[in-house]
Amino acid sequence: MNWATFFRSFVYAARGISWVVQTQQNMRVHVAAAVTTMAMAAWFRLGGWELAWVVTAVFLVLSAEAFNSAIEAAIDRIGPERHPLAGAAKDAAAGAVLILAIHAIIAGIVVFGPRILQQWKGSGL
User: Fold this and answer.
1) H helix intervals, the chain
2) Along the chain (125 residues), what's the average pLDDT of each consecutive run of 10 residues?
3) Residue 72 marked in a binding site
4) Closest by alpha carbon to 67, among 104, 38, 92, 33?
5) Cα dist. 6→3, 14, 32, 67, 78 in Å?
6) Cα–Cα distance between 108 and 60 in angstroms, integer?
């Protein structure tokens, strides 16, 4: 195994993640939601399967947004002219992000909902 090539692949991946965060507003929104979600997971001391579901949902959304951004960039690089297939590809990629974001919201409601209600009832509000 060529360790220099192996290490370089991580550098390229980090550069790609950095590009997506710096250039894509939706990724920044997802990162903010991910940080908030992970803070809530720590606050409520999630463990086991609940933590696994939350972490998986977070990483799926972030990964989907990175793929979506890569697809959009590649299509935009081809040329400025509109084509129905280019639009369909971009829409499908955005749809994948939406599907996983909905999944993450549902997972968040299932995992955090009872805890938030318990906190709310315990506060006397």
Assistant:
1) 3-23, 25-43, 48-78, 84-122
2) 93 98 98 98 97 98 99 94 95 98 98 95 71
3) yes
4) 92
5) 5, 13, 30, 22, 29
6) 13
Calculate ∠ Cα 74-90-26, nearest 5°.
90
Residue 81 assigned ligand-binding role = yes
- Token pair recorded at residue 125: 């509000």
Q: Which among 65, 100, 101, 112 is annotated as catalytic?
A: 65
Q: What's the pTM value of the predicted model, to 2 decimals? A: 0.91
Say whether 77 counts as a known binding-site residue: no
Residue with tokens 């749809």, as numbered in its chain: 95
CATH architecture of 3-122: Orthogonal Bundle (1.10)
50 among known catalytic residues: no
Is 20 within 8 Å of 66 (Cβ atoms)?
Answer: yes
